[in-house]
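Components:
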Amino acid sequence: MVKRLSVIDTERCVGCQSCMFACVRRSGHGGLGGACINVRSAGGIRRGFLVVVCRACPDPPCAKVCPVAALSARPGGGVRLKNELCIGCGNCARACPFGAIFWDDAADKPLVCVYCGYCAGYCPYHVIALEDVEPEVPVER
Amino acid sequence: MSVDPTLHRVLYIDLARRRFEVRERPDVFHDGLGGTGAAIRLLEEECPAGADPMGPDNPIVMAVGPLVGLFPLASKTVAMFKSPLTGNLGESHAGGRSAVAIRSAGYGALVIRGASASPVYLSVDGHGVRFRDASALWGMRSAATVGTVIRAREAGAGARSIMRIGRAGERGVRYACVVTETYRHFGRLGLGAVFGAKKLKALVVGGRRTFDVPDRKAYRDAYDAVYHAAVDSPLMKKYHDLGTAINVLPLHASGGLPTRNLQSGQFEGAEAISAEALAKGYLGRRIACTHCPVACIHLATLRLPYPNDPYFFKTLMIGYDHEPVYAMGSLLGIADPTGLLRLLDEAEIHGFDVMSAGVALAWATEALARGLISTADTDGLTLAFGDADTYIAAMGRIVRQPTDFYRALARGTAHAAAVYGGADFALTFGGNEMPGYHTGPIGHLGYFVGARHSHLDNAGYSVDQKAAAKGEHLTPEQAADTLLEEERWRQVLTSLVVCLFARGVYDSATVIRALAAAGVETTAEALSAMGAETLRRKFAFKRREGFDAAAMPIPRRIVETPSPAGPFDEEYIRRGIAHYMARL
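Structure:
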């Protein structure tokens, strides 16, 4: 079964952004540049936080609008990016209603979660977790 | 490989000409690492001797350090300026998103020079500075609303810091603070007044830079060691669970909680305003500074009905910590948590250093009771311990300054006492108001010799408490030596810049390992020498600007009110100060 990063409860999020630093550190860097997860206030810190990350849609719109098939649907949910095919048109980022396709300005290419779960290991409050993508059970009509 | 070179970039901003430039200053960061060590070097360069703290010559320096953006708990920005409250060194630290935002925008430090002719706010990113007109924001009642407006207008949510002043800063209150991310502050020594004097309403900084490290695996390993030490440490758990206000009850029990202008060290209402009571009745959310998994920031939810409009309520989220609970709680005799939280909210709206404002109001209350001032001076307000509504009204008066008395009080408690009398019970130390620990002589000695008059300078309160627990009595010289050693090491931590609550995590070996992972090779001896040198430079600046340790008045109240450490006298503190200065 394929994995995805799941946002379990944003009400427990303290806004430390340790997950974002973890995402960048996985590639061996410090800072926040290139993180594929974003934590920001929900309209001022008093209202708590939003956690934006790819939810591994079973039918991802970002892949549908890629004109060069650089972004393709992953069997079971989510997407895979073939960077060498990408022309940087930005259709994918515009198509995602969550803003979960981030952007590498220098390379002019998308940044998208690879569902590794490294970030979840650095969330002390269990806001996010790596989970199996449960297949949808068809309903009778 | 050395540290990521963006740390060496200093952004110089000229408010008068509306110009900026970036200069590479590896010298400043090599010698001082960053934070406090870099900031004092930049302040020495930028601040002419005898500069008017409220004039255009007074610079604002903000510096971050080599661990910011790379390691957990490296979350603080160090601001330096000439203090309009004390007339010498102004140093104030804040967390929130400020430190990571400055470093991620690609700078190690900012230097703000000159003054603007009209209200302005600055939007800073990796490309430089935009000078935005702030005329419409000037005079807005609430510093929080200013944050809301700028938040909607500027890009970069999640990776930016919005530092702003309230009306207190605009109106030159010498203990006005700068608010960052609503709940963190450059609180002490009047940075808000310096912003206001420059017509600088706000400073927005944001960016998302990535930093290179010499060895990726070594970096990840060093990171994990710090991260796990932080999240598994009992000390950090204490700050996470109940927050810093956990100190209220033990201080009260030992007689060290300053109450009603330190007429007592015990407060009969301590239980009601304790961390435990606030958590039970009001805690609504816990939040963190960027890159701090501990999340010590506690927000109370306060639901208030409108008196004349049934079924209308306002719901406020109000930050609380030990020092605000002391300053607006026990020190003012406020035992009602609703009153306390409303006072804290009011201080936040105006942008006061809540500690100085509490001490000023406590002194004024006693001065009124003793007949040193009259209700004509107070514009009709009968200040009384326990009366939150009148204190809320008085905070508005300190901002508006309708009488000579409020104009004097806006310049600080020491100044007001010099004009109206009552210096014996004015809780000030070298011109700055007292923190919330009356633990004994060493705590007070620490306030006098501390470079920024905060309980976090050298932890004198902790030396008192440890000595009391062991039944020891340190001589003033022994106490001064202990404080000096601690304060030197804290210069190292604040040059990295790590939060001082994480001092137990960042011991010397951990600091050296983290620095190596960040590209800085150093030794315990070199760090130690750097800390001592930084402290010497800070005191050289203070002395240059008129600081005279031997001449500082000692308020009689601190030796008259019994402390947990038992009786002590002025002589103890004088000897301690003299020894500290001699050894510096």
